Amino acid sequence: MSDRVPEELWMEVHDIVQQAVIKTITKKKKCKKAKWVSEEALNSCEKREAKGKGEKERNTHLNAEFQRTARRDKKAFFSDQCKEIEENNRMGNTRDLFKKIRDTKGTFHAKMSTVKERNDMGLTEAEDIKKRWQEYTEELYKKDLHDPDNYNGVFSLLEPDILEYEVKWALGSITMNKASGGDGIPVELFQILKR
Fold first, then answer.
1. pTM of whole model > 0.85?
2. How confident is the model at residue 171, as a pLDDT?
3. Torsion, Cα of 33, 36, 42, 44 (10° steps)
4. Among 5, 20, 87, 173, which residue's beta carbon has the most beta carbons within 10 A?
């Protein structure tokens, strides 16, 4: 043993320990799941995934079972959370009350849909996104005003041009983390354009 280099000895010991860890400590597969999903629901989900393709009726049954279990778990989870919140409120524990509310409601993550080029390729760079939006808005204003297809035969008085300071004011007064409007454009995109 004395004729071996310490690094070789260490690697041998390291390998032995790693093999022992793998044999004795079973590592549970981590999966991203909602807080309320129980082990029973996860097991029915695993059964459903293990079946894979094949018996359509069996898969439909397993899917229904999973959804039923998940709905029951969600209802029970939120019922327990509400009871704890009500108890904290009744006892006057405002710190615990607001902590539980914050933990229960989670954080808001705005959905960002991708801006696409004319050829439906997604854009990721902020500068490219700005250019595409500029092209898009210019196209909107370049439509032929005398084309009856654009206005269905109804002509209205044209409003004055939008001034730069009006756009800057509007962008500065936008509230963040709000749902996008009817056009589906998230507010965060406008903040990128403001820069």
1. no
2. 78
3. -130
4. 87
